[in-house]
Amino acid sequence: xxxxxxxxxxxxxxxxxxxxxxxxxxxxxxxxxxxxxxxxxxxxxxxxxxxxxxxxxxxxxxxxxxxxxxxxxxxxxxxxxxxxxxxxxxxxxxxxxxxxxxxxxxxxx
Length: 109
What we know:
There is one protein chain. By secondary structure, the protein is mainly alpha-helical. It is 61% helix and 9% strand. It has three helices and two strands, in the order αββαα. The relative contact order is 0.05.
């Protein structure tokens, strides 16, 4: 299975590399304010915006990750406290005559 994953990653990398090498034409990016413009190969713009998207996606995920970590820590603490036999409730005493509870309620077992 690991070999298949490595092959898939290699093929994906080669496709991306081929895409980057075939898009080396220079393009101009104009900004909304002023006469600012940036000329660079298309692949540079694609990589910059890809990286910006990854960073923004990770920043958007950070609050939920911290929330989940706090919840996991809280549940772990509850689980540790639940495992302690602090004051276990005692079982009810057997009825007189040696009959079990199931016989007392008429289950016929």
